[in-house]
Amino acid sequence: xxxxxxxxxxxxxxxxxxxxxxxxxxxxxxxxxxxxxxxxxxxxxxxxxxxxxxxxxxxxxxxxxxxxxxxxxxxxxxxxxxxxxxxxxxxxxxxxxxxxxxxxxxxxxxxxxxxxxxxxxxxxxxxxxxxxxxxxxxxxxxxxxxxxxxx
Amino acid sequence: xxxxxxxxxxxxxxxxxxxxxxxxxxxxxxxxxxxxxxxxxxxxxxxxxxxxxxxxxxxxxxxxxxxxxxxxxxxxxxxxxxxxxxxxxxxxxxxxxxxxxxxxxxxxxxxxxxxxxxxxxxxxxxxxxxxxxxxxxxxxxxxxxxxxxxxxxxxxxxxxxxxxxxxxxxxxxxxxxxxxxxxxxxxxxxxxxxxxxxxxxxxxxxxxxxxxxxxxxxxxxxxxxxxxxxxxxxxxxxxxxxxxxxxxxxxxxxxxxxxxxxxxxxxxxxxxxxxxxxxxxxxxxxxxxxxxxxxxxxxxxxxxxxxxxxxxxxxxxxxxxxxxxxxxxxxxxxxxxxxxxxxxxxxxxxxxxxxxxxxxxxxxxxxxxxxxxxxxxxxxxxxxxxxxxxxxxxxxxxxxxxxxxxxxxxxxxxxxxxxxxxxxxxxxxxxxxxxxxxxxxxxxxxxxxxxx
Lengths: 151, 452
What we know:
The complex is a heterodimer.
Chain A: H1 5-17, E1 22-27, E2 30-35, E3 74-77, E4 82-85, E5 101-102, E6 107-113, E7 116-121, E8 126-131, E9 137-139, E10 144-150
Antiparallel strand pairs in A: 1-2, 3-10, 4-6, 4-9, 5-8, 6-7, 8-10
Chain B: E1 5-8, H1 12-25, E2 28-34, H2 41-45, E3 48-53, H3 64-73, E4 78-80, H4 90-99, E5 102-103, H5 108-115, H6 117-126, E6 134-137, H7 140-150, E7 154-162, E8 165-170, H8 176-191, E9 196-200, E10 205-215, E11 220-232, E12 235-241, H9 248-264, E13 268-278, E14 283-290, H10 297-304, H11 308-316, E15 333-340, E16 342-343, E17 349-350, E18 353-354, E19 357-359, E20 366-370, E21 377-378, E22 385-393, H12 396-409, E23 411-413, H13 419-427, H14 429-433, H15 440-451
Parallel strand pairs in B: 1-2, 1-4, 2-3, 4-5
Antiparallel strand pairs in B: 6-9, 7-8, 7-9, 10-11, 10-13, 11-12, 12-15, 13-14, 15-22, 16-17, 18-21, 19-23, 20-22
Helix pairs in contact in B: 4-5, 7-8, 12-13
């Protein structure tokens, strides 16, 4: 038996709809570690952090560099690769602004993959300190979208 | 339209291989990577790397919408799928066609046509390309008539069977009626379907394939054949060109048949037509067509001097075929060994881990296609191939000699590999004599067991 893309999508959907933010699954030797939005899977915890990803050369558009040097901020990462939108629809106000209070399950943006809209959630309760994800731009899987000062 | 930026939807050595050709052509590259490949050689070499998703292929490399979104979002004009993963998924080619993205490969309809075995066989027959003689039979009378055409030995196969199940060998046609009755009764009991068909049995077969390039408008050229008969459980281990001791007249017929097949489909891009060569009868039969660049493409490049990736890109960009058949000159011989991270001492179990140190060979006629440098990690999620070592020479003996020296120079520390196993193959008398059939490797392993 092997996992299909559909199975993984189904698992992701179940996690998305659940009240949990982390899922470890092992089926026939295939280990899956899933975490929602800001929650970090164990393998990503700093203690085990591998070499940093190589900085991409040209031609990526200039990405916003993190400004805040404040310690203890939680990175809210994109759950998947896609186009990031800060508002539910064009012309509407953004889900959050700097200074907004968020709860763990607060939607902070939308990531579109070929016309399929996926909500990105804060994964942590606190206050939005900085917004790095650019509206309408491509974000990678795991790219930092925002920084939140946890409560 | 000239292609300016290519999205590479693959990993490992083929991602590096595609990036090299793109750099030479002045084309920018964006590589889609999984979390496990963020620090891979390809990710370092590409102009940009984008993380598609987690390490598991199903969540990253196999996500068609994510791949197309990444290509669109990073301003690429084309997607190169490499081999494996999404290379022969008509769905990706179709989505590219719908989105105005160039797919570096055949049209979606062509991928579908060759992906269906029955349809491919029908196309082969229509193109007057020989297929394995045989067919369904309902009565013993009909079976005897067909068997006389096929000749002995032949196989009686259950329509509902597969994977070697429900197969009976008939060596003497006098035994056919009894065998067929038995096979039919057994098939009915085992598969709930008593229908059987007859097929010629190839006692000694060689896997010989032909590299073709098509412009998508009916023009096709070939770049010679490759012999890939050194296989272990259908996994190719050593590939070479030209096919040793293949009669010249048979070779001409084989190459022409491959071109006819691709022409019939108006095939676009690089493709490979695979044949089973029946050594005893000196005949060949169509097996299937692979609608992609193949792992073993370097041996063809070495003898032809053609950069197949560059030609794929040129065809996809609308430049058509940039040379005629007469301009294709095949010089010398080339042999390739696949180096896999697997342990021959433990029944070829995969051996993922970190390559603590590595030293690749250099020398006249030596080429190494790899994504592995010292410190590289080999994640457990993907194919175990870590390199291809290729030697080219004026003749087969020289190429093998150069390859032996190259393998002896190669050092890979930290993981188990099949390097010494490959050296034993190259030194085997049956292999060096040339023209081995697909039963060679099991025979060699058996000889080694007996000698041990």
